[in-house]
C-alpha cells in the first residue's frame, strides 16, 4: 500500500471516530433533554393530579354540607312535629286530669 492510501485510511478512521463521538454527544444531549422533558411532564402531572384531588375534595365538602343542611332541616321539622304532638297530648292530659278532679269534687 502506498503512503497516500495509508494516510487516506487514517484520515477516514479519524473522521469516523469524530462522527462516532459527535453521535455519542448528540445522543447524550437527547437523553438529557428527554429526561428534563420527562421530569417536567411528571411535575405537571403531579400538579394536575393534586388540583383534581383538591377540586374533588371541595365538591365533596360542598355536597356534604348540603346533605347535612338538608338533614338538619328535616330533623328540625321532625322536632317541631314532635313538639306539636306533645303539646296536643299535654292538653288532652290536662283535660282528662281536670275532668277527673271535677268528677271527684262533685
Describe the structure.
With 106 residues, the protein is an all-alpha fold. It has one domain (1-78). Helices cover 97% and strands 0% of the residues. The protein is built from one helix and no strands. The chain has one helix at residues 3-105. It is rod-shaped. The chain starts with a helix and ends with a helix. The model has no long low-confidence stretch (mean pLDDT 94).
SSE layout and pairing:
Elements: H1 3-105
Which properties best describe this structure?
single chain, 106 residues, mainly alpha, 1 helix, rod-shaped
Q: How do you describe this structure in short?
A:
The chain has 106 residues and is an all-alpha fold. It has one helix spanning 3-105.
What kind of sheet is the major sheet? Answer: none
Poorly predicted runs are none
Rg, nearest Å: 45 Å
The overall pLDDT average reads 94
